[in-house]
Structures are given as structure tokens and as C-alpha cells.
Amino acid sequence: MQKRLLFNSKLLQITISRLCQHLIENHGDFSDSVILGLQPRGIYLAERVRKELESILGKPIQVGYLDTTFHRDDFRRRDHPLTPYETKVPFLIENKRVVLIDDVLFTGRSVRAALDAMTTFGRPTKVELLVLIDRMYSRDIPVEANYVGRRVNTMKSQRVLVELQEQGTEEDNIWLINEPE
């Protein structure tokens, strides 16, 4: 198994800061915008983005956690039942600008499921997507991120491993892994 480092802790923090500046350019003070982190791993990135935005803007930012388990198109095709995660959206998204946040954009199916799940909480004015890693040329569904930390050309035999301190690792690292065939 070969591993290539895409992000270390320092580069990850710089990238999150850059993404937050871009968000502020487009959303201003976030008075009409909210953040939804996709369960399970997008919530960690959403919390980091929230903390950075709050530090810059000096005001609280609304963040929710969105589980897409029962909205996935492969939900009934699995051999074993999926375990849902917590959905925690303590606000309505009606007429709000929503920034969906996930760690890796691969086939686009999770984003499609998130769009379905999100409608439970209202009809947003606009939906944008922020991802840390965009695995280019791998889409099954025509989905494109508005804010990208890094675009990576990958093959199906590769995977992206996101290790964040919030998940129990010693330090932040994001790897591109070549799986043995």
C-alpha cells in the first residue's frame, strides 16, 4: 500500500483559512447563510470552518449536522443495514443560503442524498458545496463543488484517507492511498 500526503496540519489550517475568506467574499457576515456538515466526516470540517469564520467575523455562525443515510440511492441495496448518524439542524433553512460541507467529493451521490435530506428543513434560497478534496473525474452524478481545498486526479482503485484530531488521531493528515489490487 502506497501513501502520498496531500495535507499536513499546517497546510490544512492554511487551506481552511483560505476557504473561509472565500466564503466571506460571497456570504458577507453570514446573516442569511448557514452551514450544514454532512455526517459522518463532514461535521469535523464544518466545525473548523465555523470556528474560523466566528474568529474572523466576531459573531456566531449557525451550523447543523445532516445525516443522509435514509436518502441514499443505495440504501436498500446493501447486504447489511446502515447505521444512521445524528441529524442536528436546530434552525430552518427556508430562504437561507446553505453551505454544505463534506471532506471528500467522490461520486456525488452523498451530495445528491444531502439535497434530498435538506428539504426536510425548508427550501433554501441557494445551496453551495465546500469540500476539502475533490476527486476529479470520478462523478456518477453531475455535481461540482463551489469551494475546494484541493483537486486531485484519482483512480477508482485509490482512496482518500482523512485523519483529523477530532476523530482521535494524533495530528491532522490527509493521504491518497493506492490500494493493492
From TrEMBL:
Keywords: Glycosyltransferase, Transferase. One of its GO terms (molecular function) is glycosyltransferase activity. CDD domains: PRTases_typeI. The keyword Repeat does not apply. Pfam families: Pribosyltran. Residues 11-166 form the Phosphoribosyltransferase domain. This is Pyrimidine operon attenuation protein/uracil phosphoribosyltransferase. The lineage of its organism: Bacteria, Pseudomonadati, Bacteroidota, Cytophagia, Cytophagales.
